[in-house]
Amino acid sequence: MIEVIGVSKVFGDFRVLDNIDIKIKKGAIHGIIGENGAGKTTLLQMMAGVYDVEEGKILIDGESVYENNKIKNKIGYVADRNQYFKDYKVSEMIDFYAGIYDGFSKEDFKEYNKIFKLDINKKIRQLSKGMQMRLSLMLNLSNRPEVLILDEPTSGLDAIVKKELLDILIDQVYDRDVTIVISSHHIGELEKICDEVTILNRGRVKFGSNIDEIKENVKKLQVIFKEDVKDRINKIDGIINIEKVGSVYYLITDNYGEELTTDLKNLGAELIENIGLTLEEIFIYTNKNIDRGEIDE
């Protein structure tokens, strides 16, 4: 459905994205995770056709997105900061969208507004950031898009509305087979709804897979050794973080498997216990700058 093939993006001397490859299946919810400056927003803007692709290509249903009105008609795009006509009333924005998008449903907007509760007689400039996000979500959902691209869509929303939004997104997938690409700093929310995630680090793909596969590869291990192995343990391939509390070592690895277990046993490991990690913890550890020459005690 969505193919990102060898995509790079440069602004001036800064390489924002570097040879990105992502495939997103139709009817999937795909999360984009990364630190500030990792390239998330730029990638989503390119998927939505805001920016042209200078290196590589982005295809939706096999066609390029940029300046392709046929494909753009299939896309709903909610930006992290929404720029609307400030002196328009909400009701006027509804009419504006209905005039542009053939598939726009005013009835759908009314149904969504039972949840999001906006005064349609208010002007855009009278709306808070959270209210403007609600408006953007309702307008784009009411387009009945085949692809929905969301950049920090829960920003400014209270807990109840966030829950309602996540339920709506899941319903969109099951009821209409919508493909959703979503970026958020609230990684716990993504873990609940996403089929797959891509973790970006400094403009490159660090991990890209379904969440279960990422959790299979990235593990936290509690290990007890027969003797002090402080000088040798950080030479093992695949260990990305080491902490030591008393005689117990806590190891983070992004290459968990039989070979790693054998290496630890060869160092004298008496106990190797697997401790589960959340997606947020995986993101933190895999993006952490590690001084491999030191062990925290």
Automatic annotation (TrEMBL):
For this protein, the record's SUPFAM superfamilies field holds: P-loop containing nucleoside triphosphate hydrolases
Q: Which Pfam families match?
A: ABC_tran (PF00005)
Keyword ATP-binding annotated: yes
- According to the entry, every stretch annotated as the ABC transporter domain falls at 2-227
Q: Which SMART domains does the record match to this protein?
A: AAA (SM00382)
Give this protein's Gene Ontology molecular function annotations.
ATP binding; ATP hydrolysis activity
Q: Which Gene3D superfamilies match?
A: P-loop containing nucleotide triphosphate hydrolases
Question: Where exactly are the transmembrane stretches of this chain?
Answer: none
Keywords from the named record: ATP-binding, Nucleotide-binding, Transport
Q: Its family?
A: Belongs to the ABC transporter superfamily.
Against PANTHER family, the record matches this protein to:
ABC TRANSPORTER ATP-BINDING PROTEIN, ABC TRANSPORTER ATP-BINDING PROTEIN NATA
Q: What protein name applies here?
A: ABC transporter ATP-binding protein YtrB
User: What is the organism field in this record?
Assistant: Tissierella creatinophila DSM 6911
Lineage runs: Bacteria, Bacillati, Bacillota, Tissierellia, Tissierellales
